[in-house]
Amino acid sequence: MKLSTKHGEQQTTVARADFTGGLNTSAQVDAVAENQLAECVNMDVDAATGRLRTVEGTVDILSTEIFAVVYDSINSLMLVIDGNKKIRIADFSGNINSNSIGTLSGDLYPKYCAWGDGVLIASGGHLQYFNGGEIVTIDTQNADDVFVKAGRVIIYSGSRIFYSGVGDERDWRQDNNRENSSKFVEVGYKDGGNFVGLASLSNNIVAIKDNRRCYRLTGEFPEWQAVEIANQLECKGRRSYCAVGDEVFVLGSDEVQMIQNALYGNIKPEDIAAQVKSEIHRLPANAQVRYLPPLFQVWCIGRDGYILVYDIRFKAWFKRQFNGEVLDVFNVGNEVYVVKPDRVSKLDKGTFKDNGEWLSWKFLAQRMISQHDYLLKRTKVSVTMLNSERYNGQIFCGKVVLPLPIPNREVKVFEDDSPIYRNKTKLDGHSRIRGHTLPQQPNDKIFWSEEPLKDNRHKIFANNTFEIQSKNYFRSHYLDIGGHGTGGRFILQSVVMDIAEV
């Protein structure tokens, strides 16, 4: 039996739940796709459900003056470099040595890679090596970058790539009579360009130059082969690219390209950032780019805590906005650490704070435009809470505003720092949630279940989904769908509207 409505076949139910298309700031609000967002801050897509969710907050683990941090994966330590380029050792429990173990040899932001008993560091001066106890400066060409391949340490200067002797980071003496001695190769001979950076992939090296040329170096000494694969590839700087699996993510001043390892000949120009050009323009020259495997995301770090995020699973863009400046980010296993000028923080799923203060979130979906007028008759919002922190937010459909449907048992009055002015989150759940909660019940009765527990992968209890409904009569030529707020982590399961076109 179908319930009748006053407007009959003119009434439709519209649901907005899938936002896997990510951010699109190049189109007008009414021109973005149904699964895209015209605005999105501190929200991304949950991989398990494909639904929009708020991002993780941070907890601080270390407070000190920071110019840069080098992560030593061999010794599970951080080398913290201050404004005077002094290097100190710190651990992930927040302990930091008061005495310096050395000074950075160059003035550039350090690039590093694991090697032997510690980590190699390149900062524009001589190559340096932390062996687990001390910093050793090695007599080399000035090194802007460093990585390891086939048992050799590799650095570059100008248009030459230098290889150390096999297995010895101190051996940089050229000897053509010894195959395992130090070697060098010149890529793009007399093409007028110098290296911006090198990316080491599984079976070759991608070399990016400042004259927009890009080369692929394959093979090992003495069978090197350098092939030009692009002549219109721009890179913002030595920190503005990273390897993503067996591809290279390259950030330019107006575009982003992914260079695939398996391609032969010239690469096909493909701008994967065509829908976020205005956000690319916000990024500074030499913006830091990092791939974070635990999140399946590439972070492009801007000014004042602004981060442009590329999700490689959905091939979609999102934005983060921290409460303070961000210098760098790195992962240790599944943990992600954020480097700031005065602290090191760790992403934490249990909070929506950063630098001790609440983060804010907002989104704006595709604008719906009618040939005549829309009559919005009923609105329903469903969310799943991810923690029990303070919630202060609202979802709007046109001028119909619904507070987040948080049950009254989750609202803590004592020590609650929520703002009162224009805060629609009420303490009395009866007057606020006109709909009903949707608790996630067990799939079967546990007492009578014959399935062995060790073979059952279903959760007995999961996070509850809560709904709020609003009966209303709002008439307009168009409908904007979005939301904003601060505090609390949640998944937006859906926004459902009963609409008649009149």
Low-confidence stretches: 428-444
| Count of DSSP H/I helices | 2
Please give the radius of gyration in angstroms: 27 Å
Q: Report, as a whole number of angstroms, the end-to-end distance.
A: 25 Å
Helical residues, percent: under 10%
- Structural class label: mainly beta
What's the multimeric state? single chain
Your description of this structure?
The relative contact order is 0.15. The model is unreliable at 428-444 (pLDDT under 50). The chain is mainly β and 502 residues long. 2% of the residues lie in helices and 45% in strands. The protein starts with 10 loop residues before the first strand and ends with a strand. It contains two helices and 42 strands. The strands form ten sheets. Strands 1, 4, 5, 36, 39, 40 and 42 form a seven-stranded antiparallel sheet that branches.
Give a short synopsis of this structure.
With 502 residues, this protein is mainly β. It is built from two helices and 42 strands.
How are the elements arranged and paired?
Elements: E1 11-16, E2 22-23, E3 36-41, E4 43-45, E5 52-54, E6 57-63, E7 68-72, E8 77-81, E9 86-90, E10 102-103, E11 111-115, E12 118-122, E13 128-130, E14 135-137, E15 146-149, E16 152-157, E17 160-163, E18 183-186, E19 195-200, E20 204-209, E21 214-218, E22 225-230, E23 241-244, E24 247-251, E25 256-260, H1 277-282, E26 289-292, E27 297-301, E28 306-311, E29 316-321, E30 328-332, E31 335-340, E32 343-348, E33 353-354, E34 357-358, E35 360-365, E36 368-385, E37 392-397, E38 400-403, H2 429-432, E39 437-438, E40 465-479, E41 481-486, E42 490-501
Parallel strand pairs: 2-3
Antiparallel strand pairs: 1-42, 3-35, 4-5, 5-42, 6-32, 7-8, 8-9, 9-10, 11-12, 12-13, 13-14, 15-16, 16-17, 17-18, 19-20, 20-21, 21-22, 23-24, 24-25, 26-27, 27-28, 28-29, 30-31, 31-32, 33-34, 35-41, 36-40, 36-42, 37-38, 37-41, 39-40
